[in-house]
Structures are given as C-alpha cells and as structure tokens.
Amino acid sequence: MYRLLSLLTVAALLVSCANRTARQQTATADNGSATFQVPTPPTYLTDEGRRDYLKVHYWDRFDFTDTLFLARIDTARMFEAFARYVMLLSDRPTDGTPIDSLMRRASSSRRMMDYFAMLADGVLHDPNSPLRNDEFYIPVLRALLAAPWYDEYERIAPEYDLRMALQNRVGHPANDFRYTLASGAQGTLYGLDAEYVLLFVNNPGCPMCREIREEIAASPMLSEMIERGRLCVLTLYPDEDLAAWRDYAEQIPPKWINAYDRGCVIREEGTYDFNAIPSLYLFDRDKRVLVKDSVSVPQIEEVIDRRS
Q1: Please, which residues bridge with residue 234 across strands?
Q2: Which three-class secondary structure state does DSSP give residue 246?
C-alpha cells in the first residue's frame, strides 16, 4: 500500500492543542454530536510547561466509564484529539509509557477499549498516518491481548501486529536479510561496510517513491556522505515483477545499491513490515536501528546530524 496522505490531512492532524478553548466533555459539536475538549493549561506556564501539563492532564475530563458517551461522540474530532495527544508525546518517540497509561484507563470496559484501540489503529498504525509509531502502538496491542474480553480468533490480528511491531525497533539491532542484484550477485545488510546504511524500500511506478528518491539525491548532506563512503543507500524492491524493476533500474543513482528480495523471503518470513511503501530505515555501522519506517528525508538528515 502506498502512502498517499494529503497535506491537508497532515495539517489537520498537526493542529496545536495548546490554543484550543477548554469546555466540558459533553460540549456539543456543530452537527449536534458530543465532543471531548481538553483542559486549558494555566496561563502562567511557558510553552514547554503547557506541553508538559497537557501530557499529564490531557484526558482528565474524559470519563472512561461512560460508554453511553461513545454513542454520541463526534468520532472525527476524537481522531483529531487523539492525534494531537500523540503530537504532544512526539519529543519522546520511543517512550510508550503515556500510551500504556491511557490504555489502562480505557480498559474499564470492552466498548471503551475497542474505541480507543480504533483511534490508536488509525493514528499510530495506519500506513498512511504521518504519526505512525510502533513504539506507541505496542502498548495498545499489549493492552488488547491482556484484556479478558477477546477470544482466540479475535486475538489473531493483534498478536500478528504485535509480532511485526516488535521487529527492528529503534535502538535495537536490525534483522539481517539477503538481497540480490540484477547480475544475480547477492549480499546481506550486515555485510555492508559504512558508517550509516539507508534502506529505501520502493516500488517502480510509485510517485512518492520517486519523490523520496529525488529528495535523497538532492540533499547536499546525504550526497556528500554517499560520495565519501560514509552513507550506503540500499534500495530494495520487495515484490515479484522483476521486469518492472529492471525497467526502473536506470532511475537509481549509480552509487546506490539497487537490489530486490529474491523470492520475497523478507515478506514471507515477516522480518520487516513492508505493508507501507515507500519506507526508509536508517542503520548505524553496527546495524542498530536509528530510524524505522519513515518517509521523511529531513528526519534522516536530522538523526545523522545529531550524532555528528
């Protein structure tokens, strides 16, 4: 599945919650449905203080025992509210503790758990979400699997998603894999000798893949690192239509490694989640994951710059 989220949708998700007026939880939206409103931080706080306040008090006005409220709630606005909460946590993207705390509160009933799991799935797990974050989604999946309301069949999907989310976590060693070149020669991720390795999972004919390829090539920082051998770019085609892949080969810069996953082994073994394409992974020399499943070239640059 390609990532096709519009800029307008991204903007809606990134609206700051700091300036929204606080009302009671049962405020009424324009369409007559109920809406949830976050508390207003004290006016004397700094911007950082307001953010810290909202991290702690964001859900204070939400009654997690009131399942009748879910029947009247404006779910579109709840998705926005959940996304704004995730944005508050974005300064610590590998700390799932706040989400774990939230899901514990949502575990008051199956209906409440299902509702917050739905919000989390859309914001934290959907391939098209700009806020997708496995470290935040892992506590959601663990909460679902720990809940007493689901039978063995209902647990199949979250068990699979958790297994995939636990692969290649930021700060952990990446799963090794074998790749194949057009010549038939093969190599492995761990066989690449560079200060950084940028894995670029892509498909021919994918417009966003082209945009990311051009953005990497146009980056002065990344281009210089590639030229000096500090950064190795490995493009990987994960599917079966090798004719299309070969036709696309001339679009790949000559200093990049252009490879495919022979027999789709990576997908079959589930060592990487390639449901969202394009996808960028950044590894250090020891193949420890620095960036997981991103589409942001500036993020890649920022992470490398912080380590310089």
Answers
A1: 199, 257
A2: helix
DSSP 8-state symbol, 2: B
Q: Is the peptide bond before 278 cis (omega within 30 degrees of 0)?
A: yes
Average pLDDT over residues 86-105: 94
What pLDDT score was predicted for residue 299?
A: 92
Nearest Cα residue to 124 out of 93, 86, 160, 95 = 86
In 3D, which of 27, 103, 107, 116 has the Cα closest to residue 72? 27
Q: Which single residue is written with the structure tokens 């000559």?
A: 254
Q: What is the helix (H) or strand (E) element at residue 163, kind and residue range?
A: helix 156-165
d(CA 44, CA 28): 29
Tell me the two tokens of residue 242: 């090798």
Dump strand ranges (E) for the chain. Answer: 27-28, 34-35, 178-180, 186-188, 196-201, 231-237, 257-260, 279-284, 289-294
Label residue 234 exposed, middle or buried (CB < 10 Å: 0-12, 13-18, 19+): buried
pLDDT in tens, 175-229: 999 999 999 999 999 999 999 999 999 998 889 999 999 999 999 999 999 999 9
- Output the DSSP codes for 49-114: HHHHHHHHHTTTT--TT-THHHHHB-HHHHHHHHHHHHHHTTTSTT--HHHHHHHHHHTTSHHHHH
Report strand pairing: 34-35 vs 27-28.
antiparallel
CB-side neighbour CA atoms (13 Å) of 162: 14
Low-confidence winner among 31-45, 164-178, 287-301 (lowest mean pLDDT): 31-45
Q: pTM of this prediction?
A: 0.82
CA within 13 Å, CB half, 262: 12
Task: Render pLDDT for 20-58 as a digit per residue (tens, 0 to 9).
Answer: 323 334 445 444 567 788 889 999 999 999 999 999 999
Return the pLDDT at 218.
96
Phi, psi at residue 85, to the nearest 5°? -65, -45
Cα radius of gyration rounded to whole Å, the chain = 22
